[in-house]
Structures are given as C-alpha cells and as structure tokens.
Design goal:
Layout: H1 3-13, E1 17-19, E2 25-26, E3 32-33, E4 35-37, H2 46-63, E5 69-73, H3 77-87, E6 92-95, E7 108-109, E8 117-125, H4 129-140, E9 144-153, H5 157-166, E10 170-175, H6 176-185, H7 191-202
Parallel strand pairs: 5-6, 5-8, 8-9, 9-10
Antiparallel strand pairs: 1-4, 2-3, 6-7
Helix pairs in contact: 1-2, 1-6, 2-3, 6-7
Length: about 210
C-alpha cells in the first residue's frame, strides 16, 4: 500500500471518516453528503497520530524543503502542526479564524518574521475557504507561505479553483479517491455504494441519482 492508502485505511478503521451513501449526512452548508469527516478523532489514537505526523514531516521535507516555520489553523490544525514543528525542530504559530477582540487583537499567535517561509497544517480540505483565509492572514503578517499540507481532501472542484485562484499549493496525505477505493477493497462498501461515492465527487447536487 502507498502512504495515502495506509492513511485512508487508518481513517476508516478509527471512524474518523464515515461513509453512508444510502443515508447521507447533512453538512453545515446544507449539502447532503455520503461522507462525514472528523479528523480530530486521530488525536486519540497514538499509532494513527504518529503515522500522520511522520507523513507530514516527509511530505514537507519533499515538497517544501525551504520551510522555516510551521503554522496550524484553528482549531483542528493546531495539534498536528505543533507536533510536526517539534519533530522538525522548527518554530510554530497558529492562526485564528479571526483576530481576537481584546488584548493585542492578534490573529496569529506565536512569532512570525517578515519573509519567513511558512507551511500551514490543516486537517481537512472541503472548499478550502477557511485555510485560504489563514494563508491571507499569514501573508498580511509578512510570511511567505509556501503552501498548505492537509490530512485529507474531498477533492471538490471548488477547492481546486479556490487554490488555483489564490495561487497556493496544496499537498495532502490522502484523498477522497484513495479512501473510497480502500473502503471498497476492504468490503466496507459495495459496488453500488462505490458508484454513489464516485458520483458525489463530480456532482454534489445530483449524486444520489444513478440513472
């Protein structure tokens, strides 16, 4: 198995990712989805957590070798980012969704110097909106953002468009495509459920209609 497939298998095993094509979940956006992801669950499983952090370290060394600081997005990216920064012996910062309304009113906690080369850690990419706002906040602080590293992506077209428009590089440990094929290979889903899941990736509105 590849690293992506191994991580996907782990996420399914600990139920950080749940697949339910026949009884969809409702996302906060109102989208009816055959998949629900809560990667915070990974923190409760040391072996899975270690595999993720080691995967991040290797990915960052390969894709972003010039990195000088790791940042985590609030809140789910913070623990993973802090562990990765520790393992790479790099400074760490975290980025709030918006500035505090008291005290120094910071949005970025830690210390970021102008021109410092940063990689942001995120747990999940759906449309990419929140992490790209964090990227913008880091750049306002003077950071040079090399890219975003995330555990998992739904591979939605809107996310690809958003990252392309922002000219931000995205790298992930595993993907929706790999995850559903691993699920099918382990018989967690059947053939008709696989087809529904494949259709969701390309059409989030009419995916339940297989005709």
């Amino acid at each position: 198995m590849t690293l992506s497939q191994d991580i996907a298998k782990d996420l399914l095993k600990i139920e950080a990712v749940s697949l339910s094509p026949n009884t969809p979940f409702t996302w906060a956006s109102g989208i009816q989805s055959p998949i629900y992801t809560d990667n915070r669950v990974t923190l409760a499983y040391p072996a899975v957590r270690t595999a993720i952090e080691e995967g991040f370290v290797e990915l960052i060394k390969e894709k972003f070798p010039d990195v000088e600081i790791i940042a985590g997005t609030a809140t789910a990216g913070i623990p993973h980012g802090a562990i990765v920064a520790d393992r790479m012996n790099l400074p760490f910062a975290y980025i709030r969704s918006k500035p505090k309304d008291h005290g120094n009113k910071r949005q970025i906690e830690g210390r970021v110097f102008p021109g410092q080369k940063m990689v942001l850690i995120e747990d999940l990419i759906s449309t990419g909106g929140s992490v790209l706002e964090a990227v913008a906040a880091a750049e306002r602080e003077g950071a040079q953002v090399l890219g975003v590293a995330a555990i998992f992506t739904y591979q939605l077209e809107k996310a690809s468009l958003n990252f392309d428009m922002a000219q931000v590089r995205l790298e992930t440990l595993t993907t929706y495509t790999d995850l559903i094929h691993v699920a099918h290979g382990t018989e967690a889903i059947n053939e008709s459920e696989l087809k529904l899941l494949q259709k969701f990736k390309s059409n989030q509105e009419n995916w339940q209609d297989l005709s």
